[in-house]
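Slide 14.
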Amino acid sequence: MKITLQKNKSLIKKVLVLFMGAVAFALVTKFIIKSTEPDFLDVLLEDFKKDSLLNDKIGGYRSYEVNYNDYEAKSDSMNFKIVIYGKNKKYIHYGKAIKNKKKSWMLKSITDSIIEY
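Slide 15: predicted structure.
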């Protein structure tokens, strides 16, 4: 009986260490991704989440998706796409941003659409 209990404790410790390692890896990965993402994307996303008119049109905020090219983000212009998913519709925001002389991003063009799914 003691041998089985010791084996179970050892297995539980190993699983906990593995779980904590996986959580730490996920957090570090998320931090690295967020630190390389242009700041204006987060600002736009938060604005979309708070927009009550938009939320009414799409059936409330559920989740989002951001797409852009890393190579473009390192240059002076970048195309991007933000999709806000609601209950029954999704809001798609296509845009182009350019860097100004101070190396901060400015929106140059925007195309919006709401699609039912």
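Speaker note: The CA atoms of residues 45 and 115 lie 18 Å apart.
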